[in-house]
Design a protein that fits this description.
Blueprint: E1 2-3, E2 13-16, E3 19-30, E4 38-49, E5 53-55, H1 57-66, H2 70-85, E6 95-99, H3 101-104, H4 109-119, E7 127-131, H5 142-153, E8 157-163, H6 172-175, E9 178-183, H7 185-195, H8 200-218, E10 222-226, H9 231-239, E11 244-246, H10 262-265, E12 319-320, E13 332-333, H11 358-361
Parallel strand pairs: 4-6, 6-7, 7-8, 8-9, 9-10, 10-11
Antiparallel strand pairs: 1-2, 2-3, 3-4, 3-11, 4-5, 12-13
Length: about 375
Amino acid sequence: MLVPGSGASSAPSYAIAGGSLSVLYQPIRRMSGGNGRLVAVEALARWQHPVRGSVPPSVFVPEFGRAGLGMELLAGVTRLVATQLRRNDSPAVPISINVDDEVTTVRWWHSAFLELLAAERIPTAAIWLELTERVDPADRPDRWHTAFEELSAAGVRLALDDVGHGVDRLELLYRLPIEVVKLDRSLVEGAAIAGCGSGPAATRARRFLTGLADWCRSQQLLTVAEGVATAGQQRAVTDGGWVAGQGYRLGRPNGLLRQISQFLQQPQLPAPTPDDAELDTTAPDTTAPDTTAPDNTAPAGGSPGNTAPDDDAAPDSAAPDNTAPDNTAPDNTASDNTVPATSTARPDPPHVGVPAGPAAAAQ
């Protein structure tokens, strides 16, 4: 259930599992050759419980999944994003939504998600769907892979999140139509340290970073480095060939999507500041885990079924540019207001320019 904000300066929330779900928005910006141009925005889910307080995503997302509420969580985030996309001043770039492992095991979850996008008038080209580090491809049936193929065919862009962390998911880079690869913050931090070193380990680290970026470029995939918090980290990943970035240095999260529009008017990357000394703490697993026993207050309930999708970030939209890909930010033209779940149209890889906005199409 959507709960409207108290005023123009406050964001709406979504009542779920006895608590309040909200979304923060963090920009993803081009670092190399783009003057900090806005590429996309990630929707970061946050959950506030009346007894447990603010529960970190690394705790509540798995809890929701185990309780059969993963789809409801995905639907809640999507609806919250949709309310902000309908504003005329929302940024004209895609919005990235996270999908967790438990959701992908629900039969027909992808069809329910496409139906939700159509109901909320969100063009599929406005969405990046991020497969988190907990999405495990091991021993999955063919229908599991087919779900992602059908999402991609409908226009949803697939991103592999936290590469280099969690379970081994490298096979997804060739088994699924992945279009965006996001480097985990741990490798970004390691790259910055390696950049200051001269030994064999530092050389191997730099070669690994460059080699992965080169492979992504050869496959026309957009590369994004996560957790870029310092000038040194930004320099290390750009030297390694990574095109876009996300982190405190490039933009802190905020609760109103329209505030991200400032990056369209002020595209230059920031000069080094004292904040360069602190690491980005916006990732779901950076908040200290809540030690309160979750059994009495954690979400409970049965699976919402195969038709009621749930929660995780709606985006900005547009159909891609057909210009030859150059591993830069995705480019999309205006898209239709509704997205038939059966659509077979396949947008080109998002590598050239900044997409025209889904804001108008979502109205």
